[in-house]
Design a protein that fits this description.
By secondary structure, this protein is an alpha+beta fold. The protein has one domain: Cytochrome p450. Helix content is 52%, strand content 9%. It contains 18 helices and twelve strands. A hairpin with a 5-residue loop joins strand 1 and strand 2. The longest helix is centred in the middle third of the chain and has 32 residues. The radius of gyration is 21 Å and the shape is globular. The chain binds protoporphyrin IX containing FE (HEM). Protoporphyrin IX containing FE binds next to helix 14 and helix 18.
């Protein structure tokens, strides 16, 4: 007698079809099993309300080491790259989290970030000047890539000429974030990237100690040496590296995913062209529609119940931010891009005490990028709207390339 074929898993995080188009899977999950257990123990949340609850409730924290060991074996925290990542603000708990966040928040204050707008405009204009004569370009490599790295290097007082090392490392880190096991070769590659960056920062810290500048590196070095909120040398290196990972890939993809979505909805693109005052709201809707960060992890530090499902102390959960954003209970007609949508409650910057520290910076980068492209390249066309070149990673949702053409330009 033939056995019935096993039914496919509700969620396969490594499936290329899922990685290209996760939203139909999210819809099925939300209905069939909104609190879903993956075979290797993670619990996946897909409803807006459940995710909001988990992001805000103090009974959920972070256990980076345990989570990595679960995924990659008991020795993984001896690897230099993981030891350092374990000191990133986004992975530690209070009181360390509160201390680090207090130090970092000063650099990301609304006023300070707004003051960066002219610099952001300059980076965007320079990229467009370089692309214009060619009549076509890859908007990821030639445009959106150049912006966040330029801004972070500026903030840290790092010459842009040195950024190639961080770019390579950051691209590698996207893989480390996914909740799937890594191979030995992947871990070795990540260690190599980390060691290069750590050596670079060792030299930079030495320089800035002798000759401080008006930059975040100098401010953090000063903070590391005085006051109550001291930073260790490892914390300093780790948290600067964290900014490249947290602020670069994410912002590139807000611009990349956003440009793709706008061109897939020509009516919305026209609306924005005709009424630039919609830009701020459009950025929020683009964040909701195709979030650059699809998931945030938490670990239960007490027994908790979510949506009637008991979660035991020590269990790890994955909040599917992209699924929450498309929950019909939170947003009407959620699969439609509507840049005039009101009361957008997207989860793309997370929530609670760990809400993204760079959210305002990312919003300004995207606003300047979209506004300037619309103005300077009025007939920009994307070549592969029906078959976008998605990179097959899960937590970071990103395009490999976004080929585009134009004929007239300003
Ligand atoms: C569109 C762009 C961005 C998106 C979608 C995004 C998304 C997120 C999300 C979802 C979290 C919460 C993670 C969690 O709860 O576990 C987060 C945290 C964080 N983000 Fe962003 N981010 C973006 C841009 C930036 C930028 C530009 C920076 C800095 C240059 C940055 C720095 C951080 C940091 C340091 C944290 C950790 C906050 C904490 O743990 O207290 N992000 N981001």
């Amino acid at each position: 007698m033939t056995q019935p074929a096993p039914s496919p898993p509700l969620l396969d995080l490594a499936s290329p079809a899922f990685l290209r188009e996760p939203y139909s899977t999210y819809d099925r999950l939300r209905v069939a099993e909104p609190v879903h257990r993956l075979p290797w123990g993670f619990i996946v949340l897909s409803r807006h309300d459940d995710i909001t609850f988990a992001l805000k409730d103090k009974r959920f924290g972070k256990t980076f080491a345990e989570r990595m060991e679960l995924r990659n074996g008991p020795e993984v925290m001896n690897e230099p790259v993981f030891r350092s990542m374990g000191k990133w603000m986004m992975w530690v708990n209070p009181p360390d989290h509160t201390r680090l966040r207090g130090l970092m928040t000063k650099a990301f204050g609304a006023r300070r970030v707004e003051d960066m707008r002219p610099r952001i405009q300059k980076i965007v204009d320079d990229a467009i000047d370089r692309m214009l004569p060619n009549g076509g370009a890859d908007l990821i490599a030639d445009f959106s890539f150049t912006l966040p790295i330029g801004v972070i290097c500026d903030m840290l007082g790092i010459p842009l000429a040195d950024s190639h090392m961080f770019i390579a490392a950051v691209q590698n880190t996207a893989k480390l974030m996914d909740p799937v096991p890594l191979s030995r070769a992947e871990i070795d590659e990540a260690n190599d990237h980390f060691n290069l960056m750590a050596e670079y920062f060792e030299r930079l810290f030495e320089q800035r100690r002798k000759d401080p500048g008006d930059d975040l590196t100098s401010a953090l070095i000063a903070a590391s040496e005085e006051g109550d909120a001291k930073l260790s040398k490892e914390e300093l290196t780790a948290n600067i590296i964290q900014l490249f990972t947290a602020g670069h890939e994410t912002s590139i993809n807000l611009i990349g995913n956003g440009l793709l979505a706008l061109h897939q909805y020509p009516d919305q693109l026209k609306l924005l062209r005709d009424d630039p005052s919609l830009l701020e709201n459009a950025v929020e809707e683009l964040l909701r529609y195709d979030s650059p960060v699809q998931a945030a992890g938490r670990d239960a530090n007490a027994d908790v119940e979510i949506n009637g499902v008991p979660i035991a102390k020590g269990e790890a959960i994955v909040c599917l931010l992209g699924a929450g954003n498309r929950d019909p209970e939170a947003h009407t007609d959620p699969d439609r891009l509507d840049i005039t949508r009101q009361n957008i409650r997207h989860l793309s910057f997370g929530g609670g005490s760990r809400y993204c520290i760079g959210a305002q910076l990312a919003r300004i980068e995207a606003e300047v990028a979209f506004a300037t492209l619309l103005k300077r390249m009025p007939d920009l066309q994307i070549d592969n709207l029906d078959n976008p070149d998605w990179r097959l990673t899960f937590v970071i949702r990103s395009l490999n390339t976004l080929p585009a053409r134009w004929s007239s330009a300003n």
